Every structure is written in structure tokens, then in C-alpha cells.
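Protein 1 of 2
SEQ + STRUCT:
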Amino acid sequence: MRNFTNSTAKKILANEISMEVLLQQYPEYQEEVLQEISVLRNIRESQIITAILDKYTVSAKIAHTKIQKSRFNETTINAFLPDVIKARFAIYLLEQLNIAVSSKTPENNVKFNLWDGTILQKLLFRKGLERKPVSLGLFKFWWRFVIHKKILMPLVNKKGIYCFYSRAFIKELSSLIGNQSCLEIAAGDGTLANFLKSEHINCQATDDYSWSHYIAYPSFVEKADAKTALLKYTPQVVLCSWPVPKNAYEKHVFKTPSVDLYIVIGTKNPAFTGDFEAYYNADKFTMELDEKLSSLILPPSDENAVYLFRRKKSPSA
């Protein structure tokens, strides 16, 4: 059994030691992983990546937890740290051994290879294209192993998906809304409102169903245009995720007397999202780019933007 120092264990758990160094220092674990993967090769090709990811990520997670709970006890480190190292080797070797089979689809009909598809399905979706709140820790770990990152959003855009919400984002958004009445306009498939319900936020999702050729609208998304919905629900808080650029509906939010807070999730670029003319003309509201919330939208991008519009207090208030 290897003996690891407390300092080495902390660096490995924090991913502060490069793969090249790990391979040089612990070649015996690479051999173990190779042998274990060779056994798993008997599994059908369509299931092998899932089997490998499940095997090593589960063992690494257990090891990480036990080491942390032991407060880096020497015996616990020596018993469990090899599982963390082997998990990193397994991911590296999967790429090197080319177990992830590249797609042979022509460029004009691009889709993910088996490797990327498996990681993204487990990371971002519950089933099919049903999104789930994403763990930031897992995302940061796995995103670096996705080979064709740039094709993710163009592929899911076709299904009305323009971003993914981290669990941290949902919690921060829930705290911001609190007990105030809430309405989501242009809600699409209602994913955001649905996530907020898990945090006990009752946000009514509405949409005019104009994108029915792309989006399958669930029954809880009420069919109503933004103006009608605002008049009906007189909300204190309004949400809109990825509003169409130069749209005709956001201006009604700023004309609704009940609205104290309007939250826009989108981009900094007026060519991609939002009615920026309405934003700049909303003289009864302040406009703030919330850097923290913007950083919690996935995939990460310098262009991601969450704008908060707060109603200005009257001088007599």
C-alpha cells in the first residue's frame, strides 16, 4: 500500500496535480485501471462508457467523502486516495484508448459522439431532453472532458433550449424572489418555473405557444401572451429567460404597476436576446447586471447575463 502525505492528498482532491505527474508517480494505478477496463470491454459498446463512468465516479465520490470526513486521517487517506487517482486515470485512458467512438455523421447533420453524448446526458438531463438542475461541482469536473463543446448549444437550440440552470442559480433566484408573487413570461417548456417549485417558489409559467413547432408545451405552461398574463396575474416579480431579440412583449413588463422586480436571463448582446430599447427606456426602473447570477448559468460564457430591473422608490416613500 502506498503512503500519501496529507499535502499530496489535498492537492489530488483539488485536482492541483497534472495528469502527466500522476502518471509518472503512480504507474501501478494506471495498470490496474487498464486491466479493469479490459474486463468491461465485454459489455456492449453502447453501454461501456456509462459502465466505466459509473464505476469510477461512484468510488471516487465515496473516497472523497470518507477522506474529508476523517479530516485527512493518514490511514483513511492511504486506503481511499487510490480510488480518486484511478478515477482520473480512467477518464484519461478512455480518451487515449478512443473507446469513445466518433460520430460518422456528415458535417451538415452533426451530432455528439458516444463519449460526449454520454457525459452530457448524465450531466444535464433527467431523460431525453428533459433538463435537470445541474451540480456546479460535477459540471466543472466533467465539462473539461467534453470534446465537442461548441456544438452543444446549436444542437439543443433546435429544441428551444438556450441555457442550463445550475442548482446554485435556482437557489439564488429563489432567495431573490422570496414570498413575492411571480410570473414567467415566454416560458417555453416551463423548465425554470418547474425548478423553482422544488424550492417552494410558486411561479406561474406562461407562453403564447408561438414556438410550438420547436417546443412541446406541458400542460402547466398556460397559453397566454405576456400582456394578457401580466394583466391577469399582476405579479410582483416577472422572469423571462432568453427573450427574443427586439421582441414586442417585454415593454409590457415595465408598464405593469404591480411589478417591482423584473429578472432577465440572456446575453449581453442585443442581437441574441432582449428588447434593449425597452430596457434603456424603462425610466421607472434601475438596471443591474448581476455578475454572480450570470456566472451560475451554464455553459459558462462571458456573454451570459442576468439583468435585474428594480422599480425605483418614489421620493415620498
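Protein 2 of 2
SEQ + STRUCT:
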Amino acid sequence: MNFELFIAKRIIGNKTYKSSVSAPIIKIGITAIAIGIIVMLIAIATGFGLQQKIRDKVSAFNGHIVIENYDTNASDESQNPISTKPDFQKNVIAIDGVNHVQGVASKFTVIRTTEEFEGVVIKGVGKDYRWTYFEEFLVEGRLPNYSEGLNNEVLVSTYLTNRMNLKVGDSFESLFVNGADFDQLPRQRKFEIVGVYNSGFQELDEKYVIADIRHIQRLNKWKKNQVGNYEVFIDDFRQLEQKTVEVHDTVDRNLKAVSVKEKFYTIFEWIKIFDNNTYIIIAIMILVAGINMITALLVLILERTQMIGILKALGTDNWSIRKVFLYNASYLIGLGLLWGNLIGLGLLLAQKYFKLFPLNPETYYVTEAPVYLAWDYIIALNVGTFVIALLMLLIPSVIISMISPVKAIRFD
């Protein structure tokens, strides 16, 4: 054990140290560190959690990357079909980082019952459709089965069932207009509700009804291999831009690849604001905690002036004495981090598993504050806070070099 660490341990273990004048200020410093780490953990976990939840919900309806035609169609309806070769999906999924490709098509319709009617988008999906996200959203009934013959099963949202007074097992009629030809009578299809979903994303819930893609292919007089667009899912969302370029380079020249960030630019720009807010909170909390620790260190130094004078008289240099107090401060910072992590992670785990704090889905697109926990940012936050707080203490520790041994050890 080195000399400075030995002295620091003796100071920490001294009983009079805990009942000294500096004790309340030290407790305030530890509390500031603990509160700071609690607030930072909550800000990062909920900020990342909200971003991830919103991102997953948007991706559930559109995929991470959409392969579509080069045209001026900015609507949600598939107008011109994509005709591809049999190995098209295999070529796309062969791209490193792409894990799934599915063909879909959409068509506007008016659904009606004896009492109500509503305009929606029928999204046609096939047997290659990945239901992972909708398994999480499902609140009643079951998911449709499109792996066999054509059927009339559909999945609708809670928003639409409440608005149309429908429930699982009910049927409704859909009226389809053939493109811009309004002279023709609308064609009808009857669908049966087998499941109800609720993503919490009202902007999408109020719009989409999930049905068999073969209905849309028949209505549009498309062939079996023709779809409206392809949805591509990737492993790592952080590589979205790179994978979008790779997919675009793989598909035919008459097709383009568009990332979900481009399609929902406003939403993703909005959730970017969370990052700025999180950075501001982290900066403020570290600054406040650092200032409190500086105050605690200065009080410790002033309280131990005689000890500093004696050490200097015995030949100890200024840096060694500064290290004694920095070791002491490191212990206090570590204590604050320990309590902060215990309380902060405890609150986050309680929210994750017991949903204690609800949110307004109309504003935040989620029904409760989501929590994202990962060891990488927890460790980085703790190490960063410890290092920055310790570096901030280097400046006030310079006061030790200004203490004169003669004046410090003088007994009046």
C-alpha cells in the first residue's frame, strides 16, 4: 500500500472524521453525486427507451427500409405494382445485416357497418409477413393466418373497434374504388375481425387494417408475384443509412430504397430532441455534483490544515498531500455513485416491470414511460461521472501548496 492511500484510509476510518464539522458538508456532497447519477440514469434510460419504442412502432408498420417504385405517388396506396424475379428477396436478404424481406400492398377503402363508416387503408400481407411486432401489440383475439388459401380474416386496431362499435368475431363490408374511375360502382369485400391490436401510435392505428394481400392483388388485377412494395428489416438500426444504400445498390434501376427515417422525417426529428435534452441534463447534474464535491474537499483541506503542515514539515511534497485528499474524495464519489445506482436502477426496474408512470399516448405515442437498460451506457455514465468529478477536484486541491507549514502547525 502506498503512503498517500494509507493516510487517506486512516482519515476515512477515523471516528472523529464522521462527527467533525465537515461531516454534514460531506454528506451533502455524497447526496449530490447520488441524486445526479439517479437523474442521469432516468434521463438516459427513459430517453433511449422512448426513442426505441417509437422507432419500433413505426418500423412495425413500414419496415426499416422500403423498396418502392420511382414515381410521384406520395400516398399510402400502392398504385403501380413491383414485378420482380423469383430470387429478388434472396438477393436482398443476402446483404449482411438484413434479416427479413416481405412483400406488401396497400389500398384505400371505406369500411362500413349498419351504423358507422370510416375511411382506412387496407394493408395486404402474405405468408412471408413477420408478425413479431403485432404479437406484442395484440390485445384481443388472434393473428390472421394467410399461409394457406385466400381468407377474409383481418386485424384491426382498438381505435377502429371503439369508433365503429366492433369486436372480435364481427364482420364489416369494405368498399373499394378502382383508381380514379369514380363512374364505376365500388367493389365490395366482406372481412371478419379475428384480432385487435393497439400499438399506442394513434396516427398509424387509426389508419391501418391488416388483410390478405391476395385481396388487393385481385382488386388491382395484379399477378401473384406483384406487390406494392417490399419492407426490409435490419439487425442494427444504427446502420440504417449504410444498409439503405446497400439495398438501393442491389435492387433494379426502376426501384429505390427509402429508410424509415426518410418516410417519417418529422417523427424522427422530434425524437432527436430527446438526445439534446439528455445531454443538457447530464451536463447540469455533473456540474452541480462537481461543485458540491469541490466544497466538501475545500472544507476537508481546511479542517486538516495542521496535518498538512506536519506532513510538509516532515518533507512530504505538495503532490503527495494532494493525492491523499483526492483518494479521500474518490471514496466519497464512489459512495455517492453506489447509492445513486442502487436507487436509480431500482426505480427503473420498478417502472420496467410494474409500469408505475403512465404517459399520454396522444403526445408521446406510448402508454407508459419505457425503460431501456444496457450495461454499456450505465458503465460509461459511472466512469465518466467519476473521472470528470475527480478532474474538477484537481483545481481546488492546489490550495494545499499555499499552506505554510510554520503557520499551519502553530498552536495558539
